[in-house]
Amino acid sequence: MSDTRTALLLVMDGVGDRLLPDRGNRTPLQIASTPNFDTLARQGQSALMNVIGPGITPGSDAAHLALFGYDPVETYPGRGPLEALGAGLDSKPGSVAFRSNFATVDDDFVVVDRRAGREFTEEEHAALQAAIDGMVIDDVKVHFVATVEHRGALVLEGPGLYADISEVDPHETGKRVLISKPLRPDAKKTADVVNKLMRQVHLKLRDLPINKDRVDRGLPPANAILVRGAGRHEEVASLEEKYHIRSAVIAGGALYIGTAKFVGMEHVTVEGQTGTIDTNFDNIAQKTIECVNSGYNYVFVHIKATDNASHDGNTDEKILAIERTDTMLGKIIDAVSDKIVIAVTGDHSTPLSTREHACDPVPIVFWSDFIRPDDVERFSEIDAAGGALHTIRGLDVMPLLLGYSGYIEKFGA
Ligand code: ZN
Ligand code: ZN
User: Fold this and answer.
1) What fold does the segment set 6-76+237-405 form as a domain?
2) pLDDT tens profile 40-61
3) How many whole angstroms separate alpha carbon 373 and alpha carbon 7?
4) Ligand nearest to the CA of 346
5) How far is the CA of 268 from the centre of ligand 1 (A)?
6) How far is the CA of 275 from the centre of ligand 1 (A)?
7) CA–CA separation, 161 vs 277, rounded Å?
8) Where are the domains of the chain?
9) How far is the CA of 61 from the centre of ligand 2 (A)?
10) Measured between alpha carbons, how far is residue 104 from residues 97, 122, 202, 219 in Å?
């Protein structure tokens, strides 16, 4: 293909917000100093965006599927497979994947601590992971990885597995681990396997030396796991199959990495990248520039700090996260402005006033050195309403980005 650019999607998680009465009735994007976002707004085309659809409050994973060009209603596999992929497990089509917690249970399988104290050493993680990963239950193989703190991901691989089963996690201490039941007849095998798994994992973990050691130190033993978020990994056409592009994800959280890998992006790791305000913005900029220069056709960069600050109700931190992301983008533009088409946006609004995701549309701006400008001068929820693209949906982002980048073929002769 001739004259192509790298399509760059920059997502600030939960960046959209509402007017803050105690800050002059402005949104965090309006308050923040964002010279680079504003340059894009002045020179590019803006819109408001309903990421999944009007009135629908997006979860981050479903929202990102839409931004990647996949209808979440058709393709959303559940949180388990996305977390598993993000944690580095090879979840295959037909497998059922879960999120997992280490937990403490008593001899009657009553939950004493849903997080088994939350803190684990590397050695403890390794011992717990080794005990569970590779277990076989009937004809089903268990893949397991311990990730952060008490968290992990688990994949069941075998014939005839379905995700339609009831939960084992009672979500409360003082209650027994629940017996999983099939929610449709052909999921009976999966429920049986999960129930056996809960028992067998308990018997294995109970006697691990690291757990005896934890008890000696006054810590709750990780003598059980609680799995949840079951999802069946279905096959989807990858970005490469759909658009013939090579794509990369630069993100700090397992869910975002997993959602990107689900559609075929390669995970590019960045030293010091986390899901917090302390993430290394300079290294993210540097790695993004490297990806552009090394021939990736599409690069997705995810910043989580905006959403964390929103869930915490921390206005100053949300503004700071926006400003640091703006500075980061400035470095990218300085280095590779003539090689890219950019879209800057959020995956949903997370108003500081509610601390939860909301259906309010988010601003988006498309920029390249050849895209026609509109009258918008600033990047914000209020300004974007006057943009040339009016109101779009998340599913429109990929075609627009890839069309401008030169990866969508001419329709007709
Ligand atoms: Zn999100
Ligand atoms: Zn959130």
Assistant:
1) Alkaline Phosphatase, subunit A (3.40.720)
2) 999 999 999 999 999 999 999 9
3) 18
4) 1
5) 20
6) 11
7) 40
8) 6-76+237-405, 83-232
9) 10
10) 22, 19, 9, 10
